[in-house]
Write a structure and sequence with these properties.
Low-confidence stretches: none
Helix content: 25-40%
Mean pLDDT: 93
Number of strands: 7
Length: about 170
């Protein structure tokens, strides 16, 4: 996390987010580094490419909206349900995909959430072609590598120095 802040020369926002309410709805704890990312950056886009499902503070979190939307989509769209069948959608008490970010290149980024500690959840990415990749790393490591590592599969490092563009307040 500190590497992202340092690389971007970012001043942390220190947002107050109602994690207790959010985690009660999910019925699971979220990874600590994701919470720190949300509190530090709020809503916005990394390098014009990657957007985390964050918050501007309080009990609103984009992750909840994306999760609810994903549940509705698979209920009404058999093609979407079949596409996600390999992992399933996270439901309290079960293993499945929990969305936490996406890219402007149409990659969907999830955790494979389970009863394991949240810090152990793998990251699962579906690219624009429908191919899946799994990564054993934290959300902040995934973002850092996306922004700075030319050899990382989802890297944007070659396009210029990393930056963060905060979303306008609602």
């Amino acid at each position: 996390m500190d590497r992202i802040v340092g690389q971007l020369h970012w001043t942390p926002l220190s947002l107050e987010i109602s994690w207790r309410e959010i985690e009660e709805e999910l019925q699971c704890s979220l990874p600590g580094d994701f919470k720190e990312l949300c509190e530090t950056f709020g809503r916005g886009v990394f390098s014009g490419y990657l957007e985390i499902a964050s918050s501007s503070g309080g009990a609103h979190l984009g992750l909840l909206g994306q999760w609810r939307s994903l549940q509705r989509i698979v209920e009404v769209n058999p093609f979407a349900a079949a596409d996600l069948e390999r992992f399933g959608i996270y439901r309290p008490g079960s293993r499945g995909l929990l969305p936490w970010a996406d890219t402007y290149a149409e990659c969907q980024i999830y955790w494979l959430a389970s009863s394991e500690p949240a810090e152990d959840w793998p990251i699962v990415v579906q690219d624009s072609e429908g191919d899946w990749s799994e990564f054993t790393m934290s959300a902040s490591e995934f973002i850092f590598r996306t922004l700075t590592d030319d050899d990382f599969r989802f890297s944007v490092a070659k396009y210029g120095p990393p930056y963060f563009e905060a979303a306008s307040p609602r």
